[in-house]
Amino acid sequence: AVVSNAEYGAVAMFLASLKLLVLTLCWFSSVTALYKGDKVYRVQLKTEGDVGNMRQFLQETQDLLDYWQTELHPGGHVDVRVPSSATSILLSPLLHNLQLDVKIPDVEQLLTRIESKKSRKKRAEPTDQVYDYGTYNSAAATHREMYRLANLYPNLTRLIGVGSTHHGRPLIVIEIVGTAKEKSIPMVWIDGGLHAREWITVASSMYFIRELLEGYGRDDYITDILDNVKFAIQPLSNPDGYAYSWNTERLWRKNRAPTKVAWCKGVDLNRNFDVNFGGPGASDFSCSEIYSGASPFSENESQAIARYLSAVRHKLMAYFSLHSYGQMWLTPLSYTKKKVPDRPHHLEVAEYATQSIKQVSGNKYTYGPATALMYLTSGDSSDWVYTELNCSHTYGIELGDNGRYGFLLPEQFIAPTGEDVLTGILSAVEVINSQPFNFSKKLKRKYRRKRKKFLS
Questions:
Q1: Residues with Cβ within 8 Å of residue 195, at least 6 apart in sequence
Q2: What pLDDT, on the 0 to 100 scale, is given for residue 130?
Q3: How far is Cα 150 from Cα 158, in angstroms, rounded to an integer?
Q4: Which residues of 321-347 are buried (b: 16+ CB within 10 A; e: fewer)?
Q5: DSSP state for residue 269 in the 8-state scheme
Q6: pLDDT (tens digit per residue) in 330-379
Q7: Is residue 145 among the annotated active site residues?
Q8: CA distance 363 to 275
Q9: Cα–Cα distance, 220 to 276 (Å, whole number)
């Protein structure tokens, strides 16, 4: 049953008494960058009452705890990291009747176990490393690889600097197109790494870029697409945060800009866009993981994306933002449960893309409106592109896995996840770029044959 008003008052007092303690512990953890003894709990939500209690608990603790995944619906679950010294917060009456399972018993031990010798060496010697598509790579190595690919494929690519971060790192977009008549063809945007700790989104974006460039002229499927669609890809949308996650604090989420609280750095870039800014799913507390910033587009990174996309809005056909984790294909909108008029088209695209992924790799991705599969969020990049730039097809793609590793996905999953991104996005682009939307079975079979041949 849902907690009563009287009980809720007691809960609020209980949580308030823990706030200073938890904030102190979280600050200490961020300084030492150690996660020893931290556990990731999965809270199972079986009924509407469970969802109501969890929603109240989340609202009270969203500034205190590190929520990894939130599926607020019956049959869903919530994954949350709890420091070893703050487990008393789980004694809240709101959680008394909910099932809590330990998903990761010790985050630090998991980190130590999955990090290969090769990865440790690359992290210890970041200045001269060569990009390796089989491991995770530093921000500097990622940018160097983008330059290398642009020099290697000058007829297919163009690198564009769209801005710089607070610490002066470049924000780089690579444009890829195969046809000489590129001014007249539609454009597709893909970004990765908005959240610093989601390393798999950066690695799979780079995988996607390499496969397009190596496939053009060799594979009919890739060639057909690049002769009719221009891709603009920003694999590393938050290089400051990524570099900090790489060097100092693995689970860092935000950028590294200063805030009004001196010891709390960073803004959640996917809460900083000017759409329902500061609403549900965002926080005005500078130390929160979901701090939305002082104002819409207060951050260099979100400004850069908005500036570039606004300039090409007349030909922007689709927007894809890569995140992790949960294996979900999210359709608009994220800040409201109101049904958008083109939802049938969104669901058709999502269904075809996720079915294609399953056919090629066997991996299952669920699909549907973001608010139905997850939770309300405000200031989301996909929502801003959909509402302000009038781009009908905007999707958030939550990559692997389903919680065994969470954000700490081992490197052996990079190539399979990259293949999922390649298959899913190219399948979606084929549907979006074909009118009407009822893709014929014959055409579906044609592209599936080409895709399977390319990935084999």
A1: 201, 238, 241, 253, 254, 268, 269, 270, 323
A2: 84
A3: 6
A4: bbbbbbbbbbbbbbbbeeebeeeebbe
A5: G
A6: 999 999 999 999 999 999 999 999 999 999 999 999 999 999 999 999 99
A7: no
A8: 33
A9: 43
The distance in angstroms from the start CA to the end CA of the chain is 52
Q: Which of 71, 289, 301, 398 is catalytic?
A: 398
Q: How far is Cα 64 from Cα 36, in angstroms, rounded to an integer?
A: 18
Residue 443, pLDDT above cutoff 50: no
Asked whether the CA dihedral 23, 138, 293, 270 is positive or negative, the reply is negative
Nearest to 351 by CA among 363, 339, 361, 365: 365
Tokens of 179: 């046809």
Q: What is the pLDDT of residues 206-248, one digit of tens each?
A: 999 999 999 999 999 999 999 999 999 999 999 999 999 999 9
Show the beta-strand stretches assigned E in 154-194.
157-164, 170-176, 187-191
pTM for this model (two decimals) = 0.89
Helical (H) or strand (E) element with 66: strand 66-70
